[in-house]
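Long-time lurker, first post.

We've been arguing in lab meeting about whether S-adenosylmethionine would sit comfortably in this protein at all. Half the group thinks yes, half thinks no, and nobody has a model to point at. So I'm putting the question to the forum: if I give you the sequence and the SMILES, can you give me back a predicted structure of the complex? Inputs are below. Any interpretation is welcome too.
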Amino acid sequence: MFVKIKNYLSRKISTKSKERFEYQFQKGKWDGLSHVDDLARYSIIAGYCSHFKKNASLLDVGCAQGVLQDRLIKVDFTNIVGIDFSEEGIRMAQPKSDNITRFEVGDMNKWKSNEMFDIIVFNESLYYADDHLAVLKRFENQLNKGGIFIISMFDRKNSPELWEDIETNYGILHQTKITNPHGTFWNVKVFEVKN
Ligand SMILES: C[S@@+](CC[C@H](N)C(=O)[O-])C[C@H]1O[C@@H](n2cnc3c(N)ncnc32)[C@H](O)[C@@H]1O
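Top reply:
Settle the argument with this. Predicted structure of the protein with S-adenosylmethionine, as tokens:
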């Protein structure tokens, strides 16, 4: 009983907690990501990937069940990796693995790899970072020369401050604002590392 109450409270308290996401995946809270109402956001990210990089390696940070991977034009990629700290999210993504696509459990606050990428996507995930600029800085080490970050964030309370921080530190290559019939707004922006 005590453990149940403790778990319930921790889900309530921290929007960043892994346990909260595991619970939400199990309850189907994120199933709606595949809905047509979110299509424009994935489509612009897929379009930006194809426009800015050809034969690219891509890392999708906070990939959840791999909805973006369904929208990518696979011939444009040599290698696609999705990471998410939710084991349940990654379990749901695994059927989408193929000869160029793999998924693994990883926490964006700690994840490191020897692999290098041309594109690193934070699709509605960066605001869950412990420290968004520190996370971007660390992921710079995984970017090939000339590599880009593609970041999507919907208009929530702290988004303007996060964008300001990011735009101060990275060069913006392009941005698009998207809305859906329910009035949700997303900004999707492409950044390069400043020299
Ligand atoms: C709003 S969902 C977005 C999912 C996916 N990018 C999409 O748009 O289809 C946020 C995702 O970020 C993941 N996430 C949150 N904190 C994370 C962390 N520290 N490391 C890795 N993934 C994280 C969650 O598990 C969840 O799958």
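For your lab meeting: The domain at 31-193 is CATH 3.40.50.150 (Rossmann fold). Residues 39-52 form the longest helix (14 residues). Whichever side wins, do check it experimentally.
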